[in-house]
Amino acid sequence: MWTEALPIVVYSTCTEVVTHAPDWQRLYASLQALKGHVQEYPGCQRFDVYFRAEPDERIRIHVYTSWDTLPQLEAFLERGYTFERLMGDFGGEVELERSIVMEKIF
Fold first, then answer.
1. Residue 86: CB partners within 8 Å, gap ≥ 6?
2. Could you identify which of 11, 41, 53, 98 might form a hypothetical disulfide with 67, taking C-beta atoms 3.0 to 4.6 angstroms apart as the criterion?
3. Beta carbons of 87 and 99 less than 8 angstroms apart
4. Is pLDDT of 2 > 70?
5. What is the edge-to-edge ordering of all strands in the sheet holding 44-54?
6. Rounded distance, CA 53 to CA 82, Å?
């Protein structure tokens, strides 16, 4: 008898923004506070931030969140303090390039 293992799925968000270097220090501090806040939400597995310096004193930032279940992710997107909401409150020159929801299967 063959037993099939179901895939393990993690529900995630990916947000990519570009900002100018003068805003980076203040934005970095805000991201540290946001990470500590979001990791307290039920079901949050990870909050990862990646960045890359680009020409013209710009910084490209990727923020990923990962969740145990789809309902937890949906609740976060609907009512939580997301990176997009932080960007709306932040001010400065921050350009949202994309924000997507994904499923990771391993």
1. 30, 31, 34
2. 11
3. no
4. no
5. 44-54, 58-67, 9-20, 94-105
6. 23
Prediction pTM value: 0.87
Instruction: Summarize pLDDT for 43-83 with one digit per residue, the tens.
Output: 999 999 999 999 999 999 999 999 999 999 999 999 999 99
CB 59 within 8 A of CB 53: yes
Query: DSSP secondary structure string, the chain?
Result: ---PPPPPEEEEEEEEEEEEHHHHHHHHHHHHHHHHHHTTSTTEEEEEEEEEEETTTEEEEEEEEEESSHHHHHHHHHHS--HHHHHHHH-SSEEEEEEEEEEEE-
Give the pLDDT confidence of 23-34 residue by residue, as tens digits.
999 999 999 999
Kindly report the backbone phi and psi dihedral angles of residue 25, in degrees, each rounded to the nearest multiple of 5, phi listed first.
-60, -45
- From the CA atom positions of the chain, what is the Rg in Å? 16
Report how far residue 13's alpha carbon sits from residue 65's, in angstroms, rounded to the nearest whole number.
Answer: 5
